[in-house]
Amino acid sequence: MGGRDATMVLLDENGIRCDGRKIDEPRRIMIKAGGLKNADGSAYIEFGDNKILVGVFGPRDVHPKHMSNTDTGILRVRYHMEPFSVGERKNPAPSRREIEISKVIKEALEPAVMLEKFPRTAVDVFIEILQADGGTRCAALTAASVALADAGIPMRDMVAAIAAGKVADTVILDVNNEEDQAGQADMPIGYMPSAEKITLLQLDGVLTPEEYKKCVEVGVEGCKLVYDLQKKALNDKYFGNKGD
Ligand code: CDP
User: What is the CATH number of the domain that holds 88?
Assistant: First the structure.
């Protein structure tokens, strides 16, 4: 992975980060519900320099049939990075990382989706990373929740996601690519605010127990900010005049 600069100052003496943000300041986030006419639901998100499109299809028949479950619906998630989404061209073949992130996002969405309401069927979530800049799994999970809601899939809540982390021994909100690569810790969090449930929590790096607790707190507060933008995107489409 490129972009690492050993001389980069991740946090200056005024508490300002390498991209000009304060420690608890998220990147600019823009979410749009809808946009793809051939999908049952869709969403587009810009999360800093991440640009991600999500299409949702279903509930629909499962092929091959033996993969279906008579008691419940199933959720299938494909996280896919365009070769041009990163500085150094990504091999178009599915990578281990993409397979892992697909699984992580699926498991983070499952508690939110009322799969029991549509047995024998599948809901497919296709995530296309058009541009990546650190934190794509959180941005993708956030957009996937909006796309599922846009598809009218019954849900307990939407999952909002953002990463907390640590740079220069300081806990920060919303880890960018440079901070991810040169920082001390990255903790992606997915959270359902109404249900007050964490559905995604990963940690790359080392934290003290106090820092761990602080990261979870900061991350959950960040998810609440993201959640407001998810609701706004749906409101704009269904009750505003910016929808399709
Ligand atoms: O994107 P996320 O932070 O969820 O996952 P990661 O595996 O921690 O990757 C961090 C970042 O590394 C990505 O967001 C991309 O910007 C970058 N990356 C890359 O440059 N080339 C790859 N083949 C994969 C990731």
Answer: 3.30.230.70
